[in-house]
Every structure is written in structure tokens, then in C-alpha cells.
Amino acid sequence: MLQKADILTCYQHPALCRFLGFTEEELRKKRSVDSSPKEDAEKDWALFQQLRAGAIDHYQVEKRYFRKDGSLVWGRLNVSLLQNHSSPLVLAMVEDITEKKSMEESRFRQAAIVESSEDAIICKNLNGVISSWNPAAQQLFGYTESEAVGRPVTILIPPELQYEESNILERIGSGKRIQHYETIRVTKVGKRIDVSLSISPIKDSSGRVVGASKIARDITQRKRAEGALLSSEQRYRLLFERNVAGVAIASLDARLLDCNDGWAHILGYESRGELLGRHASEFYFNPAERKRLVDELFEKQVLFSRDLQLKRKDGTPVWVLFNAAVHSDHDRPIVQATMIDISEWKSAEEALSGMTRKLIEAQEQERARIGRELHDDIGQRLGMLSFQLEKLQDNPFETRSRVQQLRKEIIEISNDVQALSHQLHSSKLEYLGVVGGMKSWCRDFAERQKIEIDYRHNVRSTLSTEVGLCIFRVLQEALHNAVKHSGVTRTEVQVYEDAGEIHLVVADSGRGFDVEAAKHGKGLGLTSMRERVRLLNGTIGIESKPMAGTTIRVRVPLELEKSSVVRAVG
Questions:
Q1: H or E element, residue 325
Q2: N or C, where is the chain less crowded by C-beta within 10 Å?
């Protein structure tokens, strides 16, 4: 009796062993029904039952097999019944068709994509004759597949645009692609429609171009919306054109649909015709600023208003106050924008900032000079005086107590002078680095003021002198204010690095104060902190209320632009 389950116990050809990854001995021990997934084995077994019953003398089936490593491969199984022996025998041959199956599956997937696509997909040869036509093409142009295949693609092109096909075939023949080419095509009934074409060359196995694949998308509604928009704007054309500010309209893909002469002049162009259709990304100096505008305005569709540095036609920069918003009053949303040239205002602001920088620089130079003088001159002389007074202890006993008192006072003066020196110019910043120097200063300050400072830090980068000095001066001012006004004996200080910025947080739970009132007061402490941080393109926030404590938060970029750096001396 033929037993399909025992078929693998027979002679095994080496090619079958290689195909399945087993040795001949391993393969002899396996059952045929265990060599394939259940559904494949059941299909094979049903045919084998017919073979055993004599209904058929051979059969062929494509099925999957388990390899030794657990992966699946495809094989074409041919099974024949040999009856020229005393007992019937079964001859089974397996052909590896894994690659063929993969290619079939790929073709099926591609065919499914073409069939289900909402865009018209058309293939043609290098003579421009249509060779394939998907359902979306029939929907768009009105021709059935049988009506279109075999005919020249020029049946879709208006008479005045027939020249386009030769240009397209020339580019495709040289292996080039055509992306988002907007033109006009005609349907079977003669209706003209706006389309966007993307065309790619089709190559054979040797890499030779043998045809082209064309994707056609109907953009008629979009074109109508843009036309309606421009038409509706005609009533505002006079105001639009004569506005001294730059005024423009753009599509959501950031292409300029229209602008006035003011917009063109601000950007250094003689006429607005030079700008129409161009992408907004062409006019930005800063890639990060360009990405932020695209994200906020064209993707998130939020109101955009800020100073921007744009690029003129000749490559020179121009500062503008830029305002833009997305409007959805029409079938297709558009962007309306205005801009005003503020280059002169920016120049004045930079001049003011330059004066402020020079003021702070002069202040730092003076602090450094006084610090060195106090430390190197007065400190050394007082130290020598202390040494000389110490020697007086060998003099008559009646002066001993006096000398000891003088020595104590001199030591206290020397400590105070050294502390003052550190306030004006902390050498610890140079020798210990910014983080270590701030920690040491906090420890000394806490000892002198009889308070507790909880200092924590997490900084991986080496801070520049400009950033370090800014953070250090803000820390000094904040802690002096806390000691003077908060009424508490404990303050928390955090210095850490995050997302390319150095952060400083100084917090206490003391009396607090009215921040708005303090801004208009006579003190320069808060103003000095704000100005230092602003000049490094940083931000400072002060949170405080009467009897609710105070928290100062500072953020300064680790990488500074040259125009914003304050050169610190000493």
C-alpha cells in the first residue's frame, strides 16, 4: 500500500538535500507531511489520495517547503506512479521555483498598485504608442483600455501642444525623468483638463530604455481655485499694488502666486514677474529659520509674525518684519503675507547693542583691573604685614595681647579683600572652569554669609568664556539679592546642559517680590542680568510673588553667533 507519509524515507537526491538544507540521513528521517505548511501539505495529500486510488497516474503542484533553518522556499512537485514493478512505486521530483514566485508576487503587487491608483498610469513605447492603461486613466480621459492601447499618446494632447510629446520622448530616451510637469490634456469628448505629469523611463534587463511610464494627476480644481483666487483679488488690486509694504500670496506648497512691486523692491528685484512661481526657500539665509517657517506656517498653519533676515537678488541680506497667515476662504487654502523693510531699524538696534556691549566690556575690564590690583598688591602687602606682626610676639610681654589682636584683624581684612577680588574677577573660573569655579564661589559665599547653598550641576560641554562669564555674573547677582531680600538661609542652584543650551536656575522660598514693580525701580540688578543674557541670544525668566519665593531661570545657547558675542576681558 502506498503511504504518502513515508515518501521521504526513499532515496533522496543530493540536489533535494541542498534545496532543503538537510543531509540525506536527516531527510530520510522526516515525514513528507511535516515538510510543508499544513495547507500546502493537505493540498498535496488530496492529490496523492487520487493517485493511490488509481484515479490519476501523476500530478503536479506548487507548494512551500520548510528548510532546515525554518525558512520557507517554493518548489514545483511532480509526482508519478510507476507500476512496472512487483509493487507500485512513487517517483517525486521537486524544482526550486522560489525566485519565480518572488517575481510573480512582485508583479502582482505592482499590478494591484496600478489598478487601485487614483492617478492615471499609462505606459508607452519610444514611438509614443500606448501599451498599458489603468482604470484611473479611463476615468480621467474617457477611453477604455481597448480603445487606448495601441494608439498614439498624442490623442490626449491638444493640437497646439503636440510639440511636447517629442520633447518628452527625447528626455526619456536619454534616461532622464520628468517630475510634476503641469500642462493641458484633452479627454475623449474633447474636454480640456489641467494635469500634472511625472514620467519615468522603462528599462530592460540590459539597462536600455524601451519605453516610459507616465503618471497623470488631474489638477483642474486646483487651477480653478487659484484662478478664482486671483480673480477675486482684482477688487483689491489697487491697494495691493500701491501698498508701500510688500504684499504677497503663496500656495501651501510655498510657491509665490502673486506679489506687489513693494515685495519685489524689498528683495531687490526690478519687477514682480521675476518672482512669480518661485519657492519661498530661495529667499532665506538661515536654513533653521526656513524650516521653522515652513513647519509653523505651511504645515501647522498658524499665524506667523517675526523678524526675518531674507536674501536679496544680489545675495545681500535684508531684515524684514514678516507677517503671514493661512486663509481658507477659497476652495484651496492660500497664504497671505506682508513684509516691511526694517533694515535701518535693525542697524540702529545693533548700534545700541554695540554700545551696551562696550559698556559691559568696559565694566568687565575695570573689574578685572581692580581685582588684580586688590589681589596682587594690597593682599600681598597685608600678608607681609601679618608676618611682621607675628614676629613681634618675641617683644616684651605687655605688647603680646595687642599684637595678637592686630594680627587677627589683619587676617580678616585680607580675607575680605580676597573675597572682594573674587567678586570682581574670579580667577577660579579660569583655573577650575566655569562649573567648578561657580561651585567654589558658592561654597565661599555661603560660608561668609552663613547660609546654605544647594549647588547641583550636570554639564558635559566646555563652556566658552562669554557664556561662562554671563552665567557666573547672573548667579552672583541672584544670590546677593536672595541674601539681601529673601530672608531665608537656604538657596538652590542648578546648572545643567540640555538641547544645546546651558541652563541656570536659582530658587529660594523667601519673601519674594513684585516683578513688574521691580522692572520700573531704580535698581540695576535685574536690568544687568537681562541685558547680559539678551546679548548672548538667551532668555531669562523671573518668577516671584510676595511671600511666595523667587525662581530665576536662564537659558543661553552653547554655540553663539559672532554678532551676539560679548568679548569678556579678565
A1: strand 317-327
A2: N
